[in-house]
Amino acid sequence: MKLFSLGLLLLSFLWLGACTRVPDGVEPVQNFQLQRYLGHWYEIARLDHSFERGLTLVTADYSLNPDGSVAVVNTGYSKGRDAWQLAEGRAEFVGPENVGHLKVSFLGPFYSAYIVIALADDYQYAMVSGYDKSYLWILSRTPTMPQAALEQFLQKAKAMDYPVDQLIFPKQEAQPVIKNSVQPSAPGSVQ
């Protein structure tokens, strides 16, 4: 019986990890330009999930791999652990490269949706969804985002039935850009 339960759990994990669909009522950004999207992003808001719970100073860095896929480096500071958390992965397009619908993997062959659902014309702000509406991130090229731009994103998310009242706004400030798995020191410490 334990073997069956373990198999069922593994099958569930595989199904969730491989899910790259677009949620109902959501459209990925069209005319998406990956080269303009690459670079450093600050997390302004998110729907809470266990893999980011308690993290502040969350950033994402995207760069091109030699094979054309996207290198993903996510970092966040855990005050409870007094340590930086680092997740490295890769992303690739699900369909045409001018549509903001990618799949991202942090665990080998298991992918999940990364869908750019709103993007400022100048690529300074973005809103990203997962495969269902319990995943939502608002990102900015700077540690803060003008209230007017944030309100536009919140209204768009609300219109698509995301639970915007459940968004959290983690502490954010300028941090060194993470490259090659080098982590900055703890906030307030001297390097």
TrEMBL record:
Main location, first listed in the record: membrane
The entry's keywords: Cell outer membrane, Lipid-binding, Lipoprotein, Membrane, Palmitate, Signal
InterPro entries: Calycin (IPR012674), Lipocalin_ApoD (IPR022271), Lipocalin_bac (IPR002446), Lipocalin_Blc-like_dom (IPR047202), Lipocalin_CS (IPR022272), Lipocln_cytosolic_FA-bd_dom (IPR000566)
Domain Lipocalin/cytosolic fatty-acid binding, residue spans: 33-172
GO molecular function: lipid binding
One BP term from GO: response to stress
Pfam families: Lipocalin_2
Entry's localization field: Cell outer membrane
Lipid attachment in record (S-diacylglycerol cysteine): 19
Signal peptide residue numbers: 1-17
Gene Ontology CC annotation, any one: cell outer membrane
Keyword Membrane: yes
CDD domains: lipocalin_Blc-like (cd19438)
Keyword presence, Cytoplasm: no
Function: Involved in the storage or transport of lipids necessary for membrane maintenance under stressful conditions. Displays a binding preference for lysophospholipids.
Subunit structure: Homodimer.
Family in the record: Belongs to the calycin superfamily. Lipocalin family.
Protein name from the UniProt record: Outer membrane lipoprotein Blc
